[in-house]
Amino acid sequence: MDSTKLVKTAHAMVAEGKGILAIDESHGTIKKRFDSIGVESSEDNRRAYRQMLLTTPDLGRHISGAILFDETLRQSTDQGVRFTKVMADAGVMAGIKVDKGAHDLAGCEHEKVTEGLDGLRERLTEYAELGARFAKWRAVITIGESIPSGACIESNAHALARYAALCQEAGLVPMVEPEVLMNGEHSLDECFEVTEATLRSLFHHLYEHNVLLEGTILKASMVVSGDRAANRASVQEVAEATVQCLLNSVPASLAGVVFLSGGQSDEEATAHLDAMNRLGQFPWPLSFSYGRALQAPSLKVWGENISANVAAAQKLLAHRARMNGLAAMGQYDATEEQAA
Ligand code: 13P
């Protein structure tokens, strides 16, 4: 294992004022996004959409890396230039989603376990050859009546640790993502409790599997009230609870924490990140790895005319990247949203 390279890559992923663009939607998820704008999810439309995102002028200014789906890592621009080359030229590292999705966990009703470990060593070797520098694996934890179970938390944490160890063996930085879903009526306190238990279990398993934390990035969900909760917590409450939860459960040697947006609106996700970074200094940089919260405005405008609106859609992505870059330093000013 080349520790120096892993540590360097991990630090570059969370360099000051930069974060990650998540565009690794599986075929099922991108179809849902395209359905919402009335665009057919054909291979060429997916390629055109991701080309629009990845060729955004000056993308590397606030984006350190982008997480791709397998198909995208192998695709090229209209001019025949590999996306990985376009990204490298822009100073954007290539990441790759390597899990095979969340599947029903036998014996545990309404719970999921993420699959994809079989053959992963060989797939990681190929991804590294194709130019990937980091990988992502997403586990899903649902809050509900008597769930999550210990079995669900443990089996997902164990799989994340096996994945992370394999990534480091292949020279890729593992981004470990245990997403506690926002869906439900749960309170902020319930989300705190479940997130803390999930993170404690995750870091226990990472330790058991000898994963180098200095060469690992945590992709965390924020501690928020459920989307159907009676009284939803304020931005300040979310920021304080999330930071406290991380301080309780995440070792200081971890290279960095990036957040997913998980269904929050774009501006809400930015405001939450900014509020956290205004609370002070922490052992790890707190940045972003948003999918929907970075893409939503661009997706909408691109969908209105997929050939004519490329530049307009890129402008919107560049704006969200800049707003989140500022939020990663606690310097976001919401009045700049109106000016854009
Ligand atoms: P969202 O920010 O849309 O939640 O996506 C991030 C992601 O990569 C989920 O795995």
Would you write up a description of this structure?
This protein has one domain: TIM Barrel (Alpha-Beta Barrel), CATH 3.20.20. The relative contact order is 0.14. The strands form 2 sheets. Strands 1-2-3-6-7-8-9-10 form an 8-stranded parallel barrel, surrounded by 7 helices. Strands 4-5 form a two-stranded antiparallel sheet. The protein is built from 13 helices and 10 strands. With 340 residues, it is of the alpha/beta class. Helix 10 (266-277) packs antiparallel against helix 11 (292-304) and helix 11 packs antiparallel against helix 12 (310-327). The model has no long low-confidence stretch (mean pLDDT 98). The protein binds 1,3-dihydroxyacetonephosphate. 1,3-dihydroxyacetonephosphate (13P) is lined by residues 22, 24, 138, 177, 260-262, 290-293.
Provide a compact summary of the structure.
This protein has one domain: TIM Barrel. It has 13 helices and ten strands.
Heteromolecules bound: 1,3-dihydroxyacetonephosphate
The best one-word shape is globular
Order of helix and strand elements from N to C terminus: HEHHEHHEEEHEHEHEHEHEHHH
Largest sheet: 8 strands, parallel, barrel
Radius of gyration: 19 Å
Largest sheet, order of strands side by side? 1-2-3-6-7-8-9-10
Average pLDDT level: 98
